[in-house]
Give the backbone structure.
Amino acid sequence: MRSYYKLIATIARQQRLHTPHLEAYMSSPRCAKHTIRPIALHLLCSLFKLICHSLINLQKLHQAAMPRKLMLQMHMSIDGYIAGPNNELIEWIIYNFSQDLNDYLSNIKFNDIILGRKLAEGFIPAWESMPSGTPGKELMVNTPKTVFSTTLQENPWGIGVRLVNGGFEDEVRRMKAQDESKGNVMVYGGVQTVQALVEKGLFSLVEPVALGEGKKLFTTRTSYEVIETKKFECGIAVLHYRKKV
Ligand SMILES: NC(=O)C1=CN([C@@H]2O[C@H](COP(=O)(O)OP(=O)(O)OC[C@H]3O[C@@H](n4cnc5c(N)ncnc54)[C@H](OP(=O)(O)O)[C@@H]3O)[C@@H](O)[C@H]2O)C=CC1
Ligand SMILES: Nc1nc(O)c(N)c(N[C@@H]2O[C@H](COP(=O)(O)O)[C@@H](O)[C@H]2O)n1
């Protein structure tokens, strides 16, 4: 039994646990009698301390390793398209955002933007040239951007834009693994970049579900207007559309 005490005392020393009662008991004459109750009590006491210590360490580890979220914001047609067959976008997107939508968007918090090279070529100069006061301009221009490319050798955009030439998956994983205090990472596109991120499983998409293949509800171009949107506790969002006349 004495060896149990020794073991506990050693672990306690390694864990820097303060166990004066254990040490005092070990050198007392009672200890030599090998009584079971005090032994069990001390064993329990020390185990309890060890568990507490481990929980505290685990909590610290968890806090330090909380990753950043990789977010995706794109316009999607109700039949699931994010671009027309010839890359059409502005032709079908509603761009005159109402104040409530601008307010909603400005409440989405992120500290880095990821762009594919092709989108970046339009996105960066377009937002920079917008008149000051345009909703979203400050955010789009001032948020640091990471552009992925395998062809560009030099960064044509300068300060605030980081060109990453290769190592796509590793770099996104590295950004995600940084502490959440660095803020979330927003992806705006384009198609190839987002498809690569989805393929590598870098978005933690839980719901809604992406099927990847299946049957389409809509097979011809039709315009609808939204009548109502409602999100329910179970995670289902109802989008109520009406065919435009
Ligand atoms: N629905 C929406 O909200 C939006 C839709 N879009 C649509 O997206 C389209 C533009 O996107 P797309 O043409 O696909 O181009 P992207 O913007 O995705 O850029 C593609 C380029 O990014 C680089 N790239 C992408 N994936 C990787 C990777 N895994 N590793 C390294 N580099 C990579 C490559 O650059 P390189 O060639 O230099 O190697 C590639 O050619 C347009 O049709 C537009 O309409 C765009 C934005 C928003
Ligand atoms: N966060 C935010 N605030 C605004 O005021 C906005 N107008 C937007 N727009 C969204 O940003 C993405 C890129 O815009 P472009 O496609 O370059 O116009 C897109 O998802 C817009 O909806 N965002």
Summary: DSSP finds nine helices and seven strands in the chain. The chain has two domains: 2-64, 70-216. The CA atoms of residues 223 and 245 lie 8 Å apart.
